[in-house]
Design goal:
Order of helices and strands: HEHEHEHEHEHEHHEHH
Largest sheet: 7 strands, parallel
Number of strands: 7
Structural class: alpha/beta
Strand order of the largest sheet: 3-2-1-4-5-6-7
Radius of gyration: 18 Å
Helix content: 40-55%
Bound molecules: NADP nicotinamide-adenine-dinucleotide phosphate
Strand content: 5-15%
Shape: globular
Amino acid sequence: MVDKASFAARYGSWALVAGASEGIGATYAEEIAARGLNLVLVARRAELLQSLASELSAKYNIETRNVALDLDTTDAVERISQNTSELEIGLLVYNAAFSAIGPFLERPLEDHIKEINTNAFTPLRLIYLFARQMFTRGRGGIVLMSSLSAFQGSAYISTYAATKAFNIVLAEGLWEEWRERGVDVLVCVSGAVKTPNYVASQPEQTGGLGDMTINPDQVVKEALNALGKGPYVIPGRVNRISSFVMRHLLPRKLAVKFMGEILRKMYVK
Ligand SMILES: NC(=O)c1ccc[n+]([C@@H]2O[C@H](COP(=O)([O-])OP(=O)(O)OC[C@H]3O[C@@H](n4cnc5c(N)ncnc54)[C@H](OP(=O)(O)O)[C@@H]3O)[C@@H](O)[C@H]2O)c1
């Protein structure tokens, strides 16, 4: 049972969800609203943000603000800063990501750079912006989204996995630096999740492992419940077991090969 009052006291009064218009991000927005925080919703599609904001403000009696922009731009953080300057952002959830699936050289270089911008550069800059304010208040939370593909090299999504590894290592380091200063940092290392983006990527099969996808609701609840308890969480028991095997029982070279086999079956037609 979540203690909503203490969650709001620690991470309120506003949360900013980057990548909030659908999938896991929209689910973060709803769960955070249910815990009593006001919301800044960020994504490109303004109409989706508007309908989500209307729904959540009516359902949970919260305030909302939408910032429609592309997080893969150099001025994105400056624009977010201008749009939130008078708000007390106590919780930052960076959920947006870009994933260029396919053989490395078959994707334009721009796609790989876009992955680095959207998945690593922009969250770093947003953390830099909001963590200072959190320190001044002596409280706050930061949640980054990562992927099981980041625990080793992952063929056909190599740059995406590398950006997600950046998020894991960054969050762990900041967790240790800041845990005595009232600012909780968490990285959520997720397996496959049934989101519009994942379904649109049309994975052919899951490499013979059966359907291991989980729902956004489970990811978000496990992540928010883990915030303040440790540097990372892996949602879902099966994902925790499989990642334990991959990281601690298989030699790294075998783990890389095994992940490559799965991804080849999923994505290389
Ligand atoms: N789904 C999975 O199987 C899975 C597995 C492991 C980890 N994850 C991680 O979980 C997170 C969410 O994944 P997801 O599958 O829900 O979908 P996603 O496509 O990664 O992101 C969805 C949200 O991010 C926004 N977004 C994407 N690029 C953006 C950009 N350049 N600027 C602004 N907003 C942007 C999208 O809104 P707009 O299109 O409206 O901008 C949407 O609201 C990601 O970080 C992903 O890496 C997902």
